Amino acid sequence: MKSFSNKSNPYPVTRHATYAKNGMVATSQPLAAQAGLEILKKGGNAIDAAIATAACLTVVEPTSNGIGGDAFALVWTKGKLHGLNASGRSPKNISIEAVKEAGYDEIPTHGWIPVTVPGVPGAWAELSEEFGKLPFKEVMQPAIDYASEGYPISPTLGNYWNKAYTGFKTKLTDAVFRNWFNTFAPNDRAPKVGEVWSSPDHAKTLESIANTNAESFYRGEIAEKIAAFSKEHGGFLSAEDLADHQAEWVDPIKVNYRGYDVWEVPPNGQGIVALQALNMLKGFTFTEKEAAATYHKQMEAIKLAFADGQKHVTEENSMRYTTEQILSEDYAETRRSLISDEAIQPEAGEPSSSGTVYLSTADNEGNMVSFIQSNYMGFGSGLVIPGTGIALQNRGHNFSMDPSHVNALEGGKRTFHTIIPGFLTKGNQPIGPFGVMGGFMQPQGHVQVVMNTIDFGMNPQAALDAPRWQWIKDKTVEVEHRFAHHTAQELAEKGHDIRIQLEPNSFGRGQIIWRDAETGVLVGGTESRTDGTIAAW
Questions:
Q1: DSSP 327
Q2: Catalytic residue among 314, 323, 356, 361
Q3: Which of 179, 176, 180, 149 is nearest to 164 (CA)?
Q4: pLDDT value at position 400?
Q5: Strand residue runs (E) in 208-287
Q6: Is 27 known to be catalytic?
Q7: What domains appear along the chain, each with residue ranges and CATH number?
Q8: How far apart are CA 87 and CA 415, in angstroms?
Q9: Is residue 36 a contact partner of residue 140, using CB atoms and an 8 Å limit?
Q10: Distances (CA, A) of 72 to 265, 316, 328, 381, 391
């Protein structure tokens, strides 16, 4: 890890990597990061800090996540990496036929049809029960306090809140969406920057979750309110769907990239896309980061991996090919051989048959957490359960309406999921957690951050600050406005359709914490494209 921490930052930003010994929390909102740090100082571990931070983020950054969303985690503790899949399933009695009977040929973005069972509260409770030190209620208290007492709106948050309100005002005119406006725009507008916003209903819900270890959300008073609102408006989600939910501990998956193990949660998440791309890229030698040849190979590998992900990946028991087949060395070589000097139109192969939030935490006991949660597409479905402050996710939008597709909509199924936490180890020792949130940018961000770290020796802050690119579809690639124009021109000459994107949030928001195996010193980087903060001591 020392080789990652002693490089200067080559990009024009206002921050350098942050160093600390006793503990660190990195996330996109200062108040949430400080809440996690407070828990560490009270004697909590990295798992407690992750829960406290995540719960606070549902209050202080509701434009990106909420109680009604999903979550995944990678937890290093007691010498082992553990994976948690807390994504929810589709309602049992939903189907392609039922959606078509409701008048839809495609799954809509808003309303009850794309709503799946929320996994966030279950993730918090499961992490606390399995690995936490402090009482769950104590860890949840900072979030409860912010929801009840309020907090001032930060600039980035205010900007995205206003964008969401402006869009929803014209799109979500049915009565079923009225509670969203009552909760998040009570004055017929989004809260302004610097204005104090609170949500008493949100506070009551968080308190109920804290007092019952999330039982009230799945099998109690909150579940009853969710089911009743669904039934009132013809939704598919039922009390039985909520009661059957259970967060699942899973074995993380990995590829070895130049001596480092890069870990992701297995499907239904899209982390396998990042791993497959790295598996292809390790067959090349990269000597210069800011070179068209380097970017070209990265882009081609991502395109090929996404083509496979979008065709082959859903929850594992519904996949035609196993994770092992997709990540095999032979298949990596087959896909790698398609990468030439010209941009290609990506197509899936056939393996051989033989507005999301991300946070990282670390403590002085060696525990480290990579955690991500999201409502999807900002505020999600546009639905808020009356009297609860709960904005429901719209993850079901990712299901396919093609019955022959592996990710076809079915009752009781987990869809192909965008949110993914990452983790890096070497020689069975933890390097640390990393992640880049932002829809389908996430595996692309993971590849870029890992390569910035391993191939180009950048410290965490430099690895995050480096200009990013994002493959969109076909041969279209968006690049940040800071991306070198001469390099963009060279990529265009290779056949890429290069487009300059002025919106920084289009390229994700990342966090990194690395630990020095010899000294235990932590070094972290946070996102310069938003209100990213590292709280440390």
A1: T
A2: 356
A3: 180
A4: 96
A5: 248-250, 253-257, 260-264
A6: no
A7: 2-249+357-398 (no CATH), 250-354+437-510 (1.10.246.130)
A8: 9
A9: no
A10: 8, 16, 24, 20, 18
